[in-house]
Amino acid sequence: MLTLPAKELSNRLSKIAVVTEINDTALQHASQIFDDFKRRGVILSGGFEDDAWLFTNELKHVCVRFEIGAVADWIGCPALDYAGCVKSYVAFQLGKIGLLRIQAIARLLCLMSAMPADEVCKICENINCIVEFLGILPLGCGSRDAVIEALEERARHIGGSRKDQRVLADFRAYLRFDEIISRFWESADDGQRLEYFPIYFWWKLTAILPLRPTELLLTPRDCLRGRALSVRRTRLKGSGGRVNYSIDGDYGLHTYEVSDHLAAEIRFYIDATKALKQNEIDTLLIPTSSFSGGASDSSSRYYTYPRLRMCLLSFYDEVVAPSGADIGSITLGDTRHLSMINLIISGGSPTVCRELADHADINISSYYYANLANLVECATREHLFKCILESIEHGKA
Predict the structure, then answer these.
(1) What one-character DSSP code corresponds to residue 220?
(2) Of 138-142, 308-312, 368-372, which range is least confident?
(3) Is the pLDDT reported for residue 9 higher than 50?
(4) Where in 205-245 does DSSP place strands (E)?
(5) Per-residue pLDDT tens for 306-355?
(6) Which whole-number Å values give the CA distances from 208 to 20, 33, 292, 337, 341, in the listed order?
(7) Could you give all domains of the chain from N- to C-terminal order, each with its CATH number?
């Protein structure tokens, strides 16, 4: 999470602003940070608008260049705006990391501007910085969100024991998270349901249907006919097809039946958001909450991947943490893998899994079998724990 430097409110209190998008306000803050470090002698020459900044740490001089030509279409940001965003991101890092790493990150972000999306998805260095940077660029778009999602997947793979297999959290975390969000939804008021519907929709749908988060976010506004839900599935994963940089060209509509309860919740959300400003690409989810930047303060056209991630973090802070439950970190891509494991438990073969998940290689679907023993063990422990608690409560009664 990218933050601006803390502002002192008193001798003991300070306020930290979270950067959700690089807009005019963020650019102004970045320029002020630049001026501050120049006054302190860390920046030796130039101004914020210059294409090269010269730094010193009293041991050596470090030059950071912002040489940006054309910007690839998948980024969805004009070249001039992109350059300003890179400078702002570099300014926000001052005082947090060393100058040589700042130089490396700036160089990577500048090179990335002209790279095809599939090449960016293969980057192995400073992945978290790239994800963070792409998440706060203005004018959110589906192609950029797909790159963010792919990079987060790559970071998880690199951190795991296998190169090609996603590292999942302890399955007890998923079981307990499901209990918490289901219990919360039963007592939530309309305002809470409106604010956290994107998380509820993500959890309840993608845990049974292996959608990628970016596919979920592109669910069309007019998506429901009775219990038949229309969603968009990518045509690009594993297909080797040409990228069209358009929703209709890169995604196809598919229809699946959902439960009566989930269909009713979707109808509630559609009715509750009718009066809000709709986005240009007519998706179901609409930015409504201040914690993610607010619809009125953001230039993003739809409910973006970084916004959904912020919503999940907020749900953890406001609902999961107060519950006292011991739950580890859950990421947006986990549910797609959980749905595949659920399908296997229900008797689905690797071939069926490959078709439903749109995998190019049947071996990818086979990886999910490795997680079954862990899931069964966790589910058994949770059931035994509940039985013990019920016995204790019954004995007290």
Answers:
(1) B
(2) 368-372
(3) no
(4) 224-225, 228-234
(5) 889 889 999 999 999 998 877 877 888 888 878 777 776 665 556 655 55
(6) 30, 47, 27, 10, 9
(7) 7-159 (no CATH), 171-196+206-386 (1.10.443.10)
Residues 6+ away with beta carbon under 8 Å from 13: none
Amino acid sitting at position 69: G
The predicted structure's pLDDT at residue 160: 47
Q: Is the pLDDT confidence value at 56 over 90?
A: no
Alpha helix stretches (DSSP H) within the chain = 24-39, 79-93, 99-112, 117-120, 127-135, 142-159, 171-187, 190-206, 213-217, 247-250, 260-272, 305-315, 321-323, 334-345, 350-357, 362-366, 372-396
The answer to whether 149 and 117 are in contact (CB under 8 A) is no
Q: Is the pTM of this model over 0.85?
A: no
- The widest CA-to-CA distance across the chain, in whole angstroms, is 76
